[in-house]
Design a protein that fits this description.
Helix content is about 50%, strand content about 10%. It is α+β, with helices and mostly antiparallel strands. Strands 2-1-5-3-4 form a 5-stranded mixed β-sheet, sandwiched between helices. Helix 3 crosses helix 6 and helix 6 runs antiparallel to helix 7. The N and C termini lie far apart (about 85 Å).
């Protein structure tokens, strides 16, 4: 065996599930997950800062939990659901709640640390959907930013919580509206089954409509 042959590092075939998509890559056993995401998969939204797990710029979500991707080997991530900053958008490709909040509150300047904040806050709001200001500060306490002074980021946490609650409220309103429609249909079907006259059905519909307006 020559020196050149002995210096070649072996690789392992790994399947990584990232943002709902499977990626098959061949990586050396010591390849960091952060490097695999950027160089082997091509998802460069994950940024690499200190490479010691201190700054938080490389934070991603592993099964929904924040993880420093610079402290994890790619081969050890094969059995997990990985979410990077690219996976935080809505299904239609528009900005997700935390991303939208950062835009509205100007929670970024150079943007290098931003992907790590976005993933960290996404997980934080899942566990605490209505954080106080102090809780918002604690939520981002493990991530470093050299530009913003953190105030706008804290504001973005609160705004993201509002946006998320608004989304839930819209969904709830839609469900309530559908329930009202279903209830009205049930009444009509019951009256028809009882052989009620058209005049009676119309009277009940008007009464139901008035009750709905008052509620």
């Amino acid at each position: 065996m020559t020196i050149s042959e002995s210096s070649v590092e072996p690789t392992h075939s790994v399947r990584l599930r990232i943002n709902g998509v499977s990626h098959h890559i061949d990586v050396p056993p010591r390849r960091l997950l952060s490097d695999a995401l950027r160089h082997d998969v091509g998802l460069t939204g994950t940024h690499v800062g200190c490479e010691h797990g201190v700054c938080g710029a490389c934070t991603i979500l592993i099964d929904g939990e924040p993880m420093r991707s610079c402290l994890m080997f790619a081969v050890s991530a094969a059995d997990y659901e990985i979410t990077t900053v690219e996976g935080l958008t809505r299904p239609d490709g528009s900005l997700g709640p935390v991303q939208q909040a950062f835009k509205e509150c100007h929670g970024l300047q150079c943007g290098f640390c931003t992907p790590g904040f976005l993933t960290t806050i996404t997980a934080g709001l899942r566990d605490n959907p209505d954080p106080t200001v102090d809780e918002a500060r604690e939520m981002i306490g493990g991530n470093l930013c050299r530009c913003t002074g953190y105030q706008n980021i804290v504001s973005a946490v609160s705004r993201a919580a509002e946006i998320t609650r608004g989304d839930a409220g819209s969904s709830g309103s839609a469900s309530a509206s559908q329930a009202d429609t279903d209830s009205s249909s049930d009444v009509e079907e019951a009256l028809d089954a009882l052989g009620a006259s058209d005049a009676m059905v119309e009277a009940v519909e008007q009464d139901t409509s008035i009750d709905g307006e008052h509620s």
